[in-house]
Input
Amino acid sequence: MTMTESQAGAVGATAATPKPAAGRQRAYRIGYGYWWWALPAVALMLAFIYATTASGAFYAFTNWTGIGSFDFIGLKNFTRIFQTEELTGALVNTLLLAFGFVLGSNILGLLFALALNRGLKTRYVLRTLLFMPVVIAPIAVSYIWKFIFAFDGPLNETLGAVGLKSWQRDWLADPKLALLAVLVVMVWQNIGFTMVIYLAGLATVPVELEEAAALDGAGPLRRFRSVTMPMIQPSIAIATTLSLIQGLRIFDQVIALTGGGPAGATQTLATEVYQHTFVFSNFGFGAALALVLSVLILIFTVVQQYATRDRL
Amino acid sequence: MTFSIARHRRRAAAVALPLATGLLLAACGGEDGSTANGEEPQTITLSYASANTGEKAYETLAQDYMKAHPGVTIKTNRIALNAYNQTLTTQMQAGNGPDVMYINAGTGQAGSVGQLGKAGLLMDLDSSLKSVLPEGTEELYSLDGKLLGVPSAVTISAIVYNDDLAKQNGVTVTPSSTLQDVLSQCGKVKAAGKSIFGLAGSVPQNPGIMAMEIASSTVYGPNPNWNQDRAAGKTTFAQTQGWRDALQAVIDLNKSGCFQDGAAGAGFDALTNGASQGKLFGFFAPSGATKDIMDAAQGHVKLIALPFPAPQGTQTYAALTANIGLAGNAKTKSPKLVQDFIKFSVSPDEAKKFADAQGSIPVGSDIATSDLLPQYQPIADMLKNKQYRPFGIDTWPNGQVYDALGSGATGLLTGQKTIDDVLKAMDAAWSS
Output
């Protein structure tokens, strides 16, 4: 593999290189990027992302209502969060949805990726069909599923038509099933996304290696465990991290499908943030909830990155 | 030399840019109708919320004022109902709110009179306007004795009821019916695949308004000052038998099959679909909905507004509310014009015109003798006899209490909550 002159220059500008000799070597130093070129972008990011986030976090320690003055109330908002049954329930729901989402979308996404990796003639059409829900807005998908899950909707109608009337349920109003219904919609829409990540990972697995393992007598499961899995570890790390973050901040599907009901049974931290901040005008309390959610996402992401650090 | 010219150019630009910007801003500022002789600008803005794009009541009000006051311009800004409170709060906080604004009465909601009033953002209105406030609603528009807003109309939180359809199905509900009369008819209607009431259980406001309609009789009927007592700590939700009766009525209605199948998980679409297919006879909403639906049906449907029948032995009261009104921005540059416009909005002619457009009762009129629209005729006698109570939630301290009631009522239907749970949650929300 050869390196072009421009590539060499770019590397030379960013990496520590031996001091170049005068004359001919200097030509390679023609500006291909200096650290201070990034300053405007860094400044904008600091001003519009980190500073605003920090000021938002400040309100978590106040009783601001979104208008007028406020008082600094210390940790009262946080104490209230962990003492309110509904909010601890929302925390549990958030974790259940997030981990269910990680497991469901990754297992199914990987299975579809394996099935559509090679061999099947219709794989390109099927991949497109499976990926289609990903490009639709979650809120639109959720409204379609709300119609499907409705008491007099297609799901119950179909169950009735095939003689399974006793299986008919009020899916979105049953406190034991509503959370599961939300999870089904989340997983259904995300399968295509994780499948694409795993397909990219599977493309890096040499066919020869699998053939060699097969010749050595390894069955499909053994080949998957000993050859494929280790080689797609980076894809697993990326797909699980992204789906965990997506699962922890789940909002659209809950709002559209159940609105957090019945009687708070599907509330999550994100829906509680919205409700307390914008519906009840408790900006300070909403900011505290948002801070808890952010810290939660940060902790789980760091733990996951740590667990997969040597495989990335 | 080149350097010097460039520097001079930069200096010139440094001076010219702010100057040009200032001139441009000044030019833009001149468009607000201000006059050079110190008189206040004769152009004001009016923001209002509406869920119905066809609603013209505030537009007509603005047009009428401009016709009666040549030289005045009122720029109206319709904002979707679900985004209004947040938009108004943000604009007012940023100092660029409208001169006149549609506002929620009381203190319970974002952008309400209490919330904006406490922040000093609302104009003090002429106290003579207090005369137009319906009985029991003065505290909804006042703060520390100052009047900060006026209602635009009076409505009833009611059962929006298709009496003709119900009668065709052998069901009779009248203002003198009792809860037991209703319960006894639900079973046969259910057997016919229909229901007397539609309920959108997935939207807490809908079971909430239903429970409040019942509580108007069971709680506020015997004790119109219940909210003051609760605020003073003399009572609680859990200690009040009337609240228990109201929630027990919700359970009884559900057990008797008075709601449509799947009511706990239903949205508003279930109500519109059920009503249009003739599968349900009534649902719970502000009485103005009667006109919206009748207009949409182009005269094919006739609806009436009914109070919720109280349990046997309890007097039925209608739940009267004047919770939507107008207020002025304390920072307006046209305070006299804003005062005058708000005063104009509650003048008898305009109030009548507004009420007719909205399907409500004119503000400022004597409700007992007011020229009521046909949908209010069945309860004309109740209104005449003052058999009504102010809608309880208008003076609750925050929106969480109502949410606890609404989602709690749904929890009663699904079996997630008991009456004690709901009342306890409401007490906790009141104190939060």
Remarks:
- The interface with chain B takes residues 65-69, 80, 146, 150-152, 170-175, 178, 258-265, 275, 278-281 of chain A (CB under 8 Å).
- The CA atoms of residues 254 and 260 of chain A lie 6 Å apart.
- The two ends of chain A are 23 Å apart (CA to CA).
- Confidence is low (pLDDT under 50) at residues 1-18 of chain A.
